[in-house]
Amino acid sequence: MRAGSDDAWAQRFTLMIQPPKSEDDWDEYKTSLFGAREDEYTYKFNYPPQEKDLVIRTINRAIKELNRASCDFANAGIKVISTLETPPIWPQDPCSPSSSVKFYTFSQKGQEFPLTLPVTVAPLFGPLSCDTIYVRIHRKWKPLKEWLLSIALPHNYSPEVAMRRCWDRSGMVFPLMELPPELRNIIYEYALGPEVYPLSRLSRMTRNDSFTDDEARRGAEIVFGIGYSDLGMSRHYPYPHDIGCESRSKVAPPNLALLQVSRAVSCEALKAGWEGTRKCFIEPTMFTEVVGSRVGPASQFNCLSRIELNFTHSAWFGFFGVSVSPEIEMSEGRSCGPFLMDLKTLKELHMRFRSPNDGYSGCPWAGRSSGSYNNSVVDNACQRTIVDMIMTFAFPFVKQIPHVGVTGFVKTTAKMHWEHVLRQDYTGKEHGHDNDAALEAILKTPATLLPPPCDCPQSCVASNRDRYRSTGNYVHIDAYENFAFDDEYVASV
Fold this sequence. Notes:
The structure is a single chain. The protein folds into 2 domains: 8-170, no CATH class; 176-491, no CATH class. It contains 18 helices and 18 strands. It has helices at residues 8-17, 23-31, 54-69, 71-76, 144-151, 159-170, 181-192, 214-218, 230-236, 263-275, 284-292, 297-300, 313-319, 337-342, 383-398, 412-426, 435-443, 487-491, and strands spanning 79-82, 101-107, 115-121, 133-137, 140-143, 195-196, 199-200, 222-223, 278-281, 306-311, 322-324, 328-330, 348-353, 369-370, 376-377, 403-408, 469-470, 473-474. A 5-stranded antiparallel beta sheet has the order 1-2-3-4-5, sandwiched between helices. The longest helix is centred in the N-terminal third of the chain and has 16 residues, at 54-69. It is elongated. The model is unreliable at 30-35, 208-212, 238-242, 369-377, 469-480 and 489-493 (pLDDT under 50).
């Protein structure tokens, strides 16, 4: 109860009309509740049967007008109802005038005890409007709107929820189609992206081998997917193996309700969603299935002009047909690199590398024995060296792409080096990098030197199997906990 406030007496009046349950009633009430506590009771006002009342209709119109004028007021969710079963006070019959005052009860979200107070219309025989309705508070009559603005309780909603409630309760319609096309596209891309994790409609039942089953890939449509979260990926993506989700900020699923607004909005939103957003993939099979689609959105839009590949180190090796057994071997027949070369409309590629703290389960050498460690089971490789290896494998397949970004947990010098080399090669300028020689050196590396040991000033080798396990305990490790992006600069000082 708002003790000491101007409205406390209105709440007390509510309790006078409908007192709280007595002790006997409370005992009976508790038996109807599942798990009710002995000391738990929430007051509930029981509204009487309602009849047509033009005053209530006018009060609701005033509430809607205030909802449109103020999001804070709209979020309060104020409602009005007749308190007692008494006749309406308007319109009055001049030949048989009745009472000019009637009690109404006002409730709002989060308020246990509603406000009950007398309401009148002045002048009584004039036209009815929001400005002719008054409420009596502390023996004074106040204009309805002035009083309504004073009772709205604050709510700590997030900006998104607050705005959504405001639009819902105000009855306003956003004039989307009156905006310039450029602004509409920004709205569409924000609602559906800006990151989209597309999926193919290939199911686990129909999938044989997605790397080679071209016919199945071509005949399967692609969809916008479900966004990104480690829990959502493991539950909803139809893959029989662990896809190795990276621990990072969640990406909300695309807001597909936008496609149901109208035919015009749906057409514009689909085009903006498929062509204006970045398509992200966290596992090679997902990528090859989407790339292979030749029906539905894939045939209607330029879906893959901007993509991000975000794989584990082991998945990167497999993507380029590289295996460890125990030497490094490359098979062109198993490489998915040609998929990138076949994407003639691809303008921007981000190659994202996972944090070592995501664990050694994603390392190509995880669980293998190595001569350099006295034939013991090894865990992980030097992050700096393995990134260089993967970029060397990728170079022949990505050098024709106009913009290639090396992102994620990559040493600053490595990022600058590879982005410079790829940019120079695309423009036909000298860069000093001999990729054939670098690849030959990697393939000739003896097994005793694998996995590549870490000699960074701050070790970048993971000591945990995955991000959620640390020395046998189920512990989550922060994403940017201790990776040294610039330790090369520190070492040279």
